[in-house]
Specification:
With 258 residues, the protein is an alpha/beta fold. The protein is built from 8 helices and 8 strands. Helix 4 links the parallel strand 2 and strand 3. The two termini are 24 Å apart.
Length: 258
């Protein structure tokens, strides 16, 4: 970090411990160092959540800094400890963070649905600066998530990403007009052929207007024998969406967790 006539700015990437030291050593460094430390929050362990909670309680002026919040909890894959942490995050930490930090622009949540998920959604409501929201690992696996969640999204949200069951691909018909880019990843139990066939059938059977202008579909890599069928279905989906003014792109794998 360099000091001069203008604002302080980092000239080389610094490690988090170095940034903490900068914030403590010299008053003029404190603001830039704290901005670099807390502008993007990545939480994956309980100790990180507890530390952040204490920091914001002791230094409430810091809640104005965060712009990105990424929660990485791989529940359903490891053990009950992570499952409980996921529930704790949704019930306590996330709603608290979202109520305190009102300037988030990006929110990415990677854990499964629990009874507390609706509390997270309610906490998102009213975030006027939120532009991008991604829910992976199906945090809203319930029959009513489309009805419960979509109306709660702030009108500022332009990009929405969801991983869910194949049936939920029908949510493209009910997305709020504010969403301009919709990204969807189907559960891994469904093949690329199943997902694309469902999408093509939906587009051919329902002529409702689509408000969004870009659709990104994430698929598992198809088997070699299925590639011709998949390519044909991609062409059908692309043509059907183009007629409604929607650009369509297919990818293999999941979206970037950054």
């Amino acid at each position: 970090i360099v000091a001069g006539a203008g604002p302080l700015r980092p000239i080389v990437p610094l490690k988090r411990n170095d940034l903490r030291a900068c914030a403590l050593v010299f008053r003029q460094w404190r603001g830039p160092a704290q901005t670099a430390l807390y502008r993007s929050l990545y939480l994956a362990e309980r100790v990180e959540c507890d530390a952040l909670w204490r920091t914001f309680c002791e230094s409430p002026h810091l809640v104005k800094i965060p712009r990105t919040l990424v929660i990485l909890i791989g529940i359903g894959e490891v053990d009950d400890t992570l499952w409980n942490l996921g529930s704790s995050l949704q019930h306590q930490v996330l709603p608290w963070l979202l109520k305190q930090c009102k300037f988030f622009e990006r929110l990415s949540v990677y854990f499964e649905w629990s009874s507390h998920s609706i509390e997270l959604v309610r906490a998102i409501t009213g975030h006027a600066h939120l532009r991008e929201v991604v829910f992976e690992n199906g945090p809203f696996k319930s029959n009513s998530w489309v009805a419960d969640v979509l109306p709660q999204l702030p009108s500022s949200v332009r990009v929405l990403g969801v991983e869910d069951s194949l049936a939920k691909i029908e949510s493209i018909l009910t997305l709020p007009p504010s969403v301009k880019h919709f990204a969807f990843r189907c559960d891994e139990v469904y093949s690329a052929t199943d997902t694309l066939a469902r999408l093509c059938g939906l587009l051919e059977a329902d002529s409702r207007r689509l408000h969004f202008r870009r659709f990104s579909l994430y698929l598992d890599k198809p088997h070699k024998a299925d590639e011709p069928t998949v390519l044909d279905l991609i062409g059908r989906a692309q043509a059907g969406l183009a007629k409604r003014g929607v650009a369509f792109q297919c990818y293999t794998g999941g979206w970037s967790k950054s």
